Each structure stands twice: as C-alpha cells, then as structure tokens.
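Intended use. Records like the one below are meant for learning the mapping from a protein sequence to its folded structure. Do not use them to infer anything beyond what is encoded.
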Amino acid sequence: MFPDDFYVTTHLPTEVRVHGKWVPVEGIEMDLGIRLDRNDLVPHTVPMADVRKGDRIIVGHEGVRVTPLERPAHLDVFGFMGAQVSSERPHGYLIAGIARRMQALRKSEAKILLAGGPAIIHGGGREPLAWLIEAGYIHVLFCGNALAAHDMEAHLYGTSLGLHLEGGSLAHHGHEHHLRTINRIRAIGSIEEAVRQGVITTGIMAACVRRGVKIVMAGTIRDDGPLPGVITDSVQAQAAMRAALPGVELALLVASTLHAVATGNLLPASVPTVCVDVNPAVPTKLADRGSLQAIGLVMDAASFLRELARQLGWKE
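Structure written out for the chain above:
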C-alpha cells in the first residue's frame, strides 16, 4: 500500500525536486503514485497494484511541479477542447483533419493506437480498418475477446454474431459461429499461428499479424472461450496496455466504452485522442477526464472508419 499522504499524479507533465534539481517524472499518467529508484535519481510513476514494501514514494505536494500544456499557436481539429460533443456537428472536416494528422505521423517514428469494440465488425467497419492496418496507419490495437472473435468469424463463416455480413440475414445455426471460431483458434494454439497456417487470411487480426501490430486483448467477465492471447486478469491487462503506449502520439477510440475510458486514463494529456461512439455519453466521458486535445464524434464506427480510410486512399 502507499503511504496515506502519497502524491497522486495528474496526466500533465510533472517534475520532482531531487537533490536540488527538477527531474521529469517518467511514464506520466493520471491517478498513480511516484516512486524514486534506489539511487534517488529517477522518479517514475507506479500503479497502486505494483507498489511494494520498501519503495521510496513521493508524499505531499512540496517539491512537485506540474506544468500545464501550452495552447498551440495554430489550432487544427485537435484544438484544446474547442468543440462540444454533439450528433448534429458535421463530421467531414474533422475526419479530414484526423487523416492529415495520421499521414504526418506515418512519416515519422510515432505510433497510432486504435482501441475498438465488436460493433466495428457488426456494422461493416472490418474492411476499412483492415486496410488502415495494412497501409501502415495503425501500430497498436487494444480490444477485447469479441472484436477478434467476430473478425475471424467473418472470415470463416461470413457472419458476425451469426448474421450474414452481406444481406444481414440470420445464418442457419449462426449463433454457434463465434463459439466454433474461438474453439478452432484454441485448437491451433494462437491467432498468430492461425494466420501463419493460412486458416485466417483476411480481416483485422490477419492484417495485424502480417504488419507486426502490437495487440493487447483485455478480457471481460462476459467473454466466451476466451481466445488464446486474451488477458483475463484486469491488472495484468492494464499493465500490458500501459507497456504498449510508449511512442503513441494519436489514439483512436472506436465503439468500445470500457476500452476507450481505460485507454484514455492511461494516456498523458499531450496525446490527442479521437473518441467515436453512437452513444454521446462515451465521448463526453472521455472529454470530461481532462484530455486537452480530444475530439468526440457521435456516429457509428463503420461510417467513421470508411470515411477515414477513403480520406487516406482506400478504394471500396
């Protein structure tokens, strides 16, 4: 446990006074503590679940300096909380601005993260997202058991939750498809091996494996199976997500309330985020957490991904 008066971090740049010098805190993230290494030289954040007896923990507020982010001279679509979340706002210019940011980041060493839910598959966003991955625009994928299962169900059966993706009719015994998909991948041993063997050749997971995208699948209490690779311990899943964040300079949070909020809480305030959901409460919640460069789009995931991919060169 932490000392009672431990310093609780924000997601803003933070420094600690160490031996007469201001030293930046590494791994800044909201709602953590700050631990000094054994040599009292490098302060870094530490989650409550990882603190150990004997750790040197910053207490109180003296000797801690937090720096607010500067307002940029030239605002783009990621202007500092400049727009309220609304389903009635035009989305075209915002998506075009996101596409321009992604093009610029692809030319650098920066990473783009996407956290997504199974509505991407159900609604028809599988093909544009797979194209974005293949084209090198997505470098980290956060999801749960469901997105991966239904993505591979779509390849094996042409269905998502038992509904034909072409036409929308219910497949005979279609309710079994996602379970049969999970069972087949469990028999093979891993998603990566299923792709290597040619069992799964299309879709999001296949594109991720081919392109070397870092995948973190965080499980939930409602999961079937789950698929090999799903992390069922929430603390371990959080740690795996945290470990995948260095280098991420843009986060797309699409149609997954829990993964979106979890990812937003792990990111420093300087990382621009885009939250897309049909439920306005989700992007509003992300904006309320204090991200200074956040876009909230109230629209369905497939429409967002299709328009974004089109802006970047995808041909349907």
